[in-house]
Write a structure and sequence with these properties.
The protein is an alpha/beta fold. Helices cover about 45% and strands about 15% of the residues. It has one domain: Rossmann fold (3-Layer(aba) Sandwich). The protein is built from nine helices and seven strands, in the order βαβαβαβαβαβαααβα. It is globular and about 55 Å long. It binds NADP nicotinamide-adenine-dinucleotide phosphate. NADP nicotinamide-adenine-dinucleotide phosphate binds near residues 12, 90 and 186.
């Protein structure tokens, strides 16, 4: 019960990594604000959580109005904000020269602008509570992928924002960290997961030899948000089964 009495916002918590993070915070005693664009999907998640410690704030986490509302309604309901988890994210694959304006807007507005808006709205409250932010970046935010330039740009921004905010907010006792997952089995990766040959190539680069499940990511997120990590800030923690240990080299042994 590391989070009893603490209030947490988890954006994009109607499925995948965000749903698992929200569930785990609730299990450990937190008040949890769930957010996504779909009330119906959030109600399904909330059905398994305690009513008096759960708030649903529907809305697009890429739009300023919703971001401000997510924070305001949370503080209004629970009286404070201790932890912000910027998890909602979108991805588009393919060469930049083929991308539409809509592709660029979709990814940059949610993955970058929304994270800035949410942090901006949350910071005054986190200064009061001595709270923390955990951003869900990606291994795609520390190196390039062969086919995801817009996503790479967006997650690179999140990774570096994490460092910058940590430097700026340390004096106020606010910590800012990020986790960088590699391929994780969720709706976002569902199409990719169906491409068996491609997934096998990914797996050949992962020391632990498998893709991640949402609970592989949630554990490190809760650790970074907890008092156990009270002297940890500005860290971009790869949660990638060892992908980043290999310097991008394929695992020749496993390929044999
Ligand atoms: N899966 C991977 O392989 C992987 C790897 C590295 C990093 N990540 C990162 O992990 C995070 C979570 O992704 P996931 O894999 O768990 O994906 P997911 O299962 O598709 O979940 C995405 C969540 O974000 C919500 N969402 C999407 N657009 C939104 C918007 N505009 N406003 C508010 N909520 C929105 C979705 O709910 P609604 O559709 O109900 O709005 C859903 O709850 C993302 O930041 C992603 O970039 C994922």
């Amino acid at each position: 019960m590391r989070f009893r009495g603490k209030t947490v916002i988890v954006t994009g918590s109607s499925s995948g990594i965000g749903e698992e993070i929200a569930r785990r915070f609730a299990e450990e005693g937190a008040n949890v604000t769930l957010n996504s664009r779909s009330r119906e999907r959030l109600e399904r998640v909330a059905a398994n959580l305690e009513d008096d410690r759960t708030l649903i704030v529907e809305g697009d986490a890429g739009e300023r109005e919703s971001c401000d509302r997510i924070v305001a309604e949370t503080v209004n309901r629970f009286g404070a904000l201790d932890i912000l988890i910027n998890n909602a994210g979108a991805a588009v694959a393919g060469p930049l020269e083929d991308a539409s304006d809509e592709d660029i807007d979709k990814v940059i507005s949610l993955n970058v602008r929304g994270v800035l808006y949410l942090c901006r709205a949350a910071i005054p409250h986190l200064k009061k509570s001595g709270g923390s932010i955990v951003n869900i970046s990606s291994v795609s935010g520390s190196g390039g992928d062969w086919t995801m330039p817009i996503y790479n740009a967006s997650k690179g921004a999140v990774t570096n924002l994490t460092r910058s905010l940590a430097l700026g907010l340390g004096k106020d006792g606010v910590r800012v960290n990020a986790v960088l997952p590699s391929l994780t089995r969720t709706e976002l990766s569902a199409d990719l997961m169906e491409q068996e040959e491609l997934v096998d190539k990914f797996k050949a680069r992962i020391a632990l030899g498998r893709v991640a499940e949402p609970d592989d990511i949630a554990g490190p997120v809760l650790f970074l948000a907890s008092d156990e990590a009270k002297f940890v800030t500005g860290v971009n923690l790869p949660v990638d089964g060892g992908v980043s240990a290999s310097n991008g080299q394929p695992n020749l042994q496993r390929a044999e």
